[in-house]
Specification:
By secondary structure, the protein is mostly helical. It has 15 helices and no strands. Helix content is 65%, strand content 0%. The site of one iron/sulfur cluster (SF4) has 15 residues, from helix 4 and helix 5.
């Protein structure tokens, strides 16, 4: 991790916190901090990604403004996290996409939508796009299945590769002092913490969104998005098995497994993203970092558009609007895949890495799984 003004500020803040330690029960950041007397750039990168931005420490801090120390841990870590996203991005030149990320994502969405709509209208007759399609293969009459699979595999496969390389870079930098690779116990604990969003519980009562009162709203909204995303992915996997193994061709009945999973996932995504967007409007701006707001909002709007058009497509799939809706929905999905490694989505990858690191360095000593000096 390169030395920047933000890294210097994060080090100053961590040194004050390490002397104070008042917030040590709030989240994993403080116990991890207490394992260190000095903070390397890589340590600060790790700690910043371990922070879940619950803001509890901000309202508890006696050194927050107007104190002369001017300490704002959530904001400092949010700014540092944004720098880590650029630092570990792959390939390196595309790290520039994280700057003015809201504008970048908007342009990619507009471009992807235009390409899919132009290709659909250019390759299909209006009678096909705006016609009624029923029964097996109705979707593929408008956009061929082979094309959908090829574009999906290439773009999603590339996104997974870029995210995996980013994770590897983050891990090599921040976990260099770990004696051995994190074992399965560390992974099990980290995945459990990630699945429960344990650090979004702050000191036990939730986040401080509007003011110093605690609320679990942000945690539940994150759950809705996370499990909504998982449910949509599971729906795609089941549909793939239906098609390629069982020979059952979409569209499937309303009460079939892929449709129910997709419906629940879409509703979870929509409720979670709209809720978090509202929370961003009403929350106290003081502990936040304005520079990261564009990326936050861009990802939430993107996910909301994918979910909303997916649900609309389901509701109107037997009507003449199906063809156009399918093209619009796939345009939003394509844009999401394209910017997955170059937007706020990466926070989940690095946060998981930080949780694995934390689980490893705080685990009891076991043979073959020892961690930190
Ligand atoms: S955030 Fe403030 S109160 Fe909390 S540990 Fe740091 S210096 Fe102490
Ligand atoms: S904002 Fe919350 S998660 Fe981040 S360091 Fe403060 S208490 Fe921990």
């Amino acid at each position: 991790m390169r030395a920047t003004d933000t890294v210097v500020e994060a080090r100053r803040v961590m040194e004050i916190c390490n002397a104070c330690r008042y917030c040590e029960g709030y989240c994993a950041v403080f116990p991890a901090m207490e394992l260190r007397r000095e903070f390397s750039n890589a340590d600060l990168s790790y700690l910043a990604n371990l922070c879940h931005d619950c803001r509890g420490c901000s309202y508890a801090c006696q050194y927050a403004p107007p104190h002369e120390f001017n300490l704002n841990l959530p904001r400092t870590f949010a700014e540092l996290r944004a720098e880590t996203y650029r630092e570990y991005a792959w390939p390196g030149p595309l790290a520039a996409l994280f700057r003015r990320n809201g504008v970048v994502v908007s342009l990619v969405v507009a471009l992807a939508l235009a390409v899919v709509l132009l290709l659909t209208t250019g390759l299909q007759k209006p009678s096909v796009i705006y016609g009624l399609h029923a029964g097996a293969g109705a979707f593929y009459a408008v956009i061929p299945l082979g094309l959908m699979i090829a574009v999906g595999l290439v773009t999603f496969g590339y996104a997974l590769l870029a995210l995996a390389v980013g994770y590897r870079r983050f891990w090599r930098d921040t976990a260099a002092e770990l004696k051995h690779a994190a074992g399965w116990r560390a992974w099990r604990r980290a995945l459990g913490d990630a699945a429960a969003l344990r650090n979004l519980a702050g000191g036990g009562f939730g986040c401080n969104d509007r003011d110093e009162s605690f609320s679990t709203t942000r945690r539940w909204l994150h759950h809705a998005i996370f499990y909504g995303f998982v449910s949509c992915f599971a729906a795609t996997c089941v549909a793939t098995v239906y098609h390629h193994v069982l020979g059952w061709i979409a569209p499937y009945p309303l009460l079939s497994v892929p449709v129910v999973l997709g419906m629940l996932g879409g509703m979870g995504l929509l409720i979670g993203t709209v809720g978090l967007l509202i929370l961003k409007i009403v929350r106290d701006p003081a502990p936040g970092a304005r520079e990261v707001l564009g990326a936050d909002v861009a990802l939430l709007v993107q996910l909301a558009l994918v979910a909303a058009t997916g649900l609309l497509l389901l509701a109107l799939r037997d009507s003449a609007a199906m063809g156009a809706l399918l093209a619009v929905h796939l345009g939003f999905v394509l844009a999401l895949f394209l910017v997955l490694p170059y937007g706020k989505f990466v926070h989940g990858v690095y946060r998981l890495g930080a949780l694995v690191h934390y689980a490893a360095e705080t685990a009891p000593v076991r043979s073959g799984e020892r961690v930190i000096e």
